[in-house]
């Protein structure tokens, strides 16, 4: 999994190997480490190779949405917009909720649009049903 990291002169996409096999806490620590090493120009060449999927956070500076372009030969890129409070309708009532836009750009030569849509829908559903568990309350140990 590639993680887009902003540098003074552009972006670099270091790769977390075998991200799908890692739990949230070790994964978040590895992301923090590789991003810091990217910013201090201490990445090894193999750490920017072999990615198949990238996550980019264009919302870090307040952008709500964008259209990220795939870094070939990767298959897809997930763009994350800024989290903002907005009025939403929940069970016929108006409520204020934190909301964000997600965008997914993908290579139709490799994956079907229906599969890409199902993936994005699964992310949406997980985020909407996120519940704070005992694991989540240990945020003091998570990188900030």
What key phrases describe this protein's structure?
two-stranded antiparallel ribbon, 144 residues, 2 helices, 22% helix, 25% strand, alpha/beta, 4-stranded mixed sheet, disordered C terminus, 8 strands, Chloramphenicol Acetyltransferase
Describe the secondary structure blueprint for this structure.
Layout: E1 2-3, E2 5-7, E3 10-12, H1 24-39, E4 53-56, E5 76-80, E6 84-90, E7 93-99, E8 102-106, H2 113-128
Parallel strand pairs: 1-4, 4-5
Antiparallel strand pairs: 2-3, 5-8, 6-7
Q: Please, how many domains?
A: 1
Supply Rg: 17 Å
Distance between the termini: 20 Å
State the helicity in percent bands.
10-25%
Q: Helical element count? A: 2
Task: Work out the number of β strands.
Answer: 8
What percent strand? 25-35%
- CATH architectural label: 2-Layer Sandwich
What is the string of SSEs from the N terminus onward?
Answer: EEEHEEEEEH
Secondary structure class reads: alpha/beta
CATH homologous superfamily, by name? Chloramphenicol acetyltransferase-like domain
Uncertain segments are 137-144
CATH class: Alpha Beta
CATH fold assignment: Chloramphenicol Acetyltransferase
Q: What spatial form do the alpha-carbon principal axes imply?
A: globular
Largest sheet: 4 strands, mixed
| Cross-sheet strand order for the largest sheet | 1-4-5-8
**Nearest-integer average pLDDT:** 88
Describe this structure in words.
The chain is of the alpha/beta class and 144 residues long. It has a single domain, classed as Chloramphenicol acetyltransferase-like domain (Chloramphenicol Acetyltransferase). The protein has helices at 24-39, 113-128, and strands at 2-3, 5-7, 10-12, 53-56, 76-80, 84-90, 93-99, 102-106. A 4-stranded mixed beta sheet has the order 1-4-5-8, with helices on one face. A two-stranded antiparallel sheet has the order 2-3. The chain has a two-stranded antiparallel sheet with strand order 6-7. β2 (5-7) and β3 form a beta hairpin. 13% of the residues are buried. The model is unreliable at 137-144 (pLDDT under 50).
